[in-house]
Write a structure and sequence with these properties.
Strand order of the largest sheet: 1-3-2-4-5-6-7
Distance between the termini: 30 Å
Radius of gyration: 17 Å
Structural class: alpha/beta
Number of helices: 10
Strand content: 15-25%
CATH superfamily: Alpha/Beta hydrolase fold, catalytic domain
Helix content: 40-55%
């Protein structure tokens, strides 16, 4: 993990945990124009992303590394925590530590599929097969690229597809495993859950299959389903409105 920081350390802390395919810096730069308050922003590159030199390992590994950093720096009061996709999975590990105090937590497109070795193996084999096909002939990605551009715009799509082609096989397998991370989550206090918003797109297949686990893990949180949206697509298309809603909670 490589940790980027922006702003004055005396300002309220905002943690940004990026989604699959982006780096911490890219996530911050995408959202920065819409932040209306001054923050001390902590935007890590999770494993296998951005300036991190290694492979992606797991949400638990990234959460543990970030938690150690926050404690070393004495940053225990967190005004806002935003985690998207794999970033939301890593954020869950921060929520389990009672030393951290949160003002508001926003989890977007949290992958919480029930652990299943068979399903995980199938997902991994399909993705690895697709990766090899696309690396051999990038033109095979054109149809998928058009679909992504409708949800994420050209700029983000270029970043996401460029990153997809550079993931190591180990990172891809571990990213697939990250979707099946439900069994490692402990019950959270009611008073903390009441500070959490969990949102996902109604067309997000991963989150639709995770819905039962999301509701079981967050019975007292605010649950928000975006009709017509897919994985993190509302954030990508309506970033200004998204940030305004998050800051106004």
């Amino acid at each position: 993990m490589h940790i980027h920081t922006y702003g004055s350390p005396s300002a309220p802390v905002l943690i940004l945990l990026h989604p699959l395919g982006l780096s911490g810096q890219q996530f911050y730069e995408f959202l920065r124009p819409y932040l209306k308050s001054d923050y001390y922003v902590i935007a890590p590159d999770q494993g296998g992303h951005g300036d991190d030199p290694g492979d992606y390992i797991s949400p638990a590994n990234d959460g543990k590394t970030l938690l150690r950093y926050l404690k070393e720096q004495g940053l225990l009061q967190i005004r806002l925590l935003l985690g998207a996709s794999i970033g939301a999975a890593a954020a869950l590990r921060l929520l389990e530590d009672p030393e951290l105090q949160f003002g508001h937590v926003h989890l977007d497109s949290t992958p919480l599929l029930s652990r299943s070795g068979a399903k995980q193996s199938i997902v991994s084999s399909v993705i690895l097969k697709e990766m090899k096909k696309h690396r051999k002939n990038p033109a095979t990605m054109d149809e998928e690229r058009a679909e992504f551009e409708r949800d994420y715009g050209k700029e983000l799509t270029d970043i996401l597809f460029g990153k997809f082609l550079t993931y190591s096989e180990k990172s891809l397998k571990n990213l697939c495993a990250a979707f099946f991370s439900n069994s490692g989550i402990r019950d959270l206090p009611v008073e903390l859950q009441e500070k959490i918003t969990v949102e996902w797109g109604a067309n997000d297949k991963i989150c639709r299959q995770s819905e039962r686990n999301i509701k079981r893990n967050f019975p007292h949180a605010r649950l928000l389903v975006r009709e017509g949206e897919s994985h993190c697509s509302y954030l990508a298309k309506y970033a200004e409105k998204y940030i305004r809603e998050m800051e106004d909670v």
